[in-house]
Amino acid sequence: MFRTASSVLHILPIAGLYTFLPKYLESQFRLAAHTANMVSGVGGILVMGIGIIISGVFILRVKPNARLVAAWIAFTAVVYAIGMGILMSIGCPMDDFAGLDRANGVFMPECSTCDCNPDKFGPVCGADGRTYFSGCHAGCSSVNMTDGKLTGFGQCSCVPTLDNSTMTEVSIGYCPLQCSNFVWYIVLFSLFVFVHSTSEVGSMLLILRCVDPRDKAMALGLIQFAIGLFGNVPCPIVYGAVVDSACLVWDTACGERGACWLYDADVFRVFFHALERIKRIPAFHDELFPSRVPNSRVVAYVHYQVCVYVTQSTSTCTSVYFHLYP
């Protein structure tokens, strides 16, 4: 039972993390969508695969006992929870957004302009290095076209220049992020994922170790069923609610709310990693119970079938299993 609970609590943060990690990287470090997906695959999935292979080779060569394997799984859960706490403090601020009222989740024009549509989010970058909600919020009165494509706005009365003059231009998109925490985040994230992934093989072996040999297939089936029902089903619901709670600007169409245009970076960072950390605490508790298995290594099972023939056509058979230890 504890192994099943641990497996479910293990898959919840992992599935949620890799589902919303690209969106988190896009919001926190302003990466392009394709770059965020590539970083998530290399720094997360690839590193996790390497950790699983290395841990499998180690267990094959060293053959640690069941208690040591369970203790290592509990240790990796603690390291992963601590790591999420560390990553919670590594991010980039949102101090370059002009007119952002984070308390109320609205953008206010920097100067007196005409009424701007608060639902039409089109970020532009000014010469002052700040990102404006739209060309209207920057006080722009003209558009710049290149080869028939909109490249920016001109005569923006709300954007000061370096010489303190007005009526400058803005370009389409966010301003370059002046933050170097992205490299540190990916390095530490990959490290904690690698440590945590080394528990995958041992976790599966403990499942097989805790049941009778003839019940292994049934045990694996029940655990996968529990993971799918209690892990994969609520995962997008829980994480989706957490991600949506950090949204500042929603896209609206016909009076209905659509996708999120802009997230509160600080709220997103705290909620995203705090949920990962909270779910690893009960998983660590569940690992403590399997760690109390006998300190031994099972090398092989010997199976005997004893049959008592009542008649020539009927018989009663009993299976006897012997565990061989070194």
Automatic annotation (TrEMBL):
GO cellular component: basolateral plasma membrane
Subcellular localization: Cell membrane
Coiled coil: none
Topology relative to the membrane: Multi-pass membrane protein
Key words of the record: Cell membrane, Disulfide bond, Membrane, Transmembrane, Transmembrane helix
Xref: InterPro entries: Kazal_dom, Kazal_dom_sf, MFS_trans_sf, OATP
GO BP terms: sodium-independent organic anion transport
One GO MF term attached to the UniProt entry: sodium-independent organic anion transmembrane transporter activity
Transmembrane domains' residue ranges: 7-25, 37-60, 69-90, 182-208, 220-242
Domain of life: Eukaryota
Pfam families: Kazal_2, OATP
Kazal-like domain boundaries: 105-157
Record-stated family: Belongs to the organo anion transporter (TC 2.A.60) family.
Listed name of the protein: Kazal-like domain-containing protein
